[in-house]
Amino acid sequence: MISYFTHFFVIYFVVSSTDAIETSLPNCCPSGWSMIPKGTKCLYFSSKQLSWFDAARYCKKFDAQLASVHSDRESETIKRLTPNELLNTGIWLGGVTTNPAYGAKQDWYWFDLTPFNYDNFGNDEPSNSKTSCTDRGLPDTSQSCLQIMNIRNFGMNWDDECCSEKRPFICEKRPSLYDCTGGK
Q1: Rounded to whole angstroms, how far apart are CA atoms 158 and 126?
Q2: How sure is the predictor about 154, in pLDDT bands with cuts at 50, 70 and 90?
Q3: Which of 7, 57, 153, 160 has its CA 20 to 30 A from that of 49?
Q4: Which positions carry the signal peptide feature in this UniProt record (predicted)?
Q5: Which pLDDT tens digit goes with each residue over 30-68?
Q6: What does the alpha-carbon distance between residue 43 and residue 76 come to, in Å, rounded to a whole number?
């Protein structure tokens, strides 16, 4: 009987100690990525000009996805971390809609399937300017993808855009417990 409790205690102590060690290790982002406050996401700002779908595929190569935004704090962090050369252009986020319509915000979702529980659309957005895509010679029939941009100098807000338009983009991934060699 004593032997059983001794083994149980030793096993419990080892498992508990291992858990404590793992949870005390720092979460890190890969080199070139930035961690947002609270350490829940790593962001990568790419200046490559890709369509929304190609940007999503590019992020996937790094076990990441186009960024989703769930709070004012995350939105402000993205604005603060955006490189200066990208401030006056649209930048793809991971939002997409299945029902593009003027002013319709209820049918948007995040490509990573997290809840679309926050929005930062600019005034009169989403606009779904249907002729905007075809007038530019793009194959899209509507503006169904989400970008963040400096809209009419009102600050960095969200805007719907034709998915085949080529834009820089933001990838996100979870920080790693073990990838702390040169990341931020």
Answers
A1: 8
A2: low
A3: 153
A4: 1-20
A5: 889 998 877 789 999 999 999 999 999 999 999 999 999
A6: 13
